[in-house]
User: What shape does this take?
Amino acid sequence: MLLCGGLQFAGAAAMAADCDGSSDPCSVDLGRVTASFAAGAASYGAEVLLVNGSDASFSPPQSLPALQVIHTAASDGFRIQPQLYAYVGGSGVQGLHEVVATLQFAGLSFTADPGYQLHGVQAVITGSFSLVGNGYGGLGMPGAVQWNDSNFSTTVALDPAASDLSIGFSLAASYVEGDDGTAASYGAGSASIDSLEFIVSVSPVPEPAPAALLAAGAVVLHWLARRRRARR
Assistant: This one.
């Protein structure tokens, strides 16, 4: 993994990056596409806040994680692993315990390199979410969420010129002790955002029609000339 002046990049294609980890505008070469960060590393933010109680564990505020450049035949993009997680309840601490998590990109955009054209951007988010007992909460995702047990994924279409994204989750659970000293009501909850990918569909710019016709005409003329020579 390459450490590039405060922002981390994974993959050889990222070596063209000129981001230095500050809040200055910067860009990252993804191969056929350039990702631009209007506020540099400050274009990204993620944190979990304890808004009630004390029975919780969660990830601290984060700076932009390492960018892993990814390629397919029809797309370029990057992946991050936010490691944004939280857990509430379960320890028998009296009262309501609640956390709220947010992750956002602001000022992110994508442009095609010369000779290529963009067809769209998708953000793909994966993570987990589970509740027990009186635990409650929810996911803040702009797209439809697909579930596999407690794991989720969602895909969101974005504008290449303004690929801002804001996602998150909330969790709450309480512990109420009964008159006999045992739990009258209790719960727990956990959630995480494990990975986030920005996938940019890209293709070569089609050859202009006149040039293509001229090329086809040259092939035909060459074939006709060969036929005439063969008849002599």
Summary: Residues 1-6, 8-17 have pLDDT under 50 and may be disordered. Residues 2-206 form one domain. The chain has one domain: 2-206.
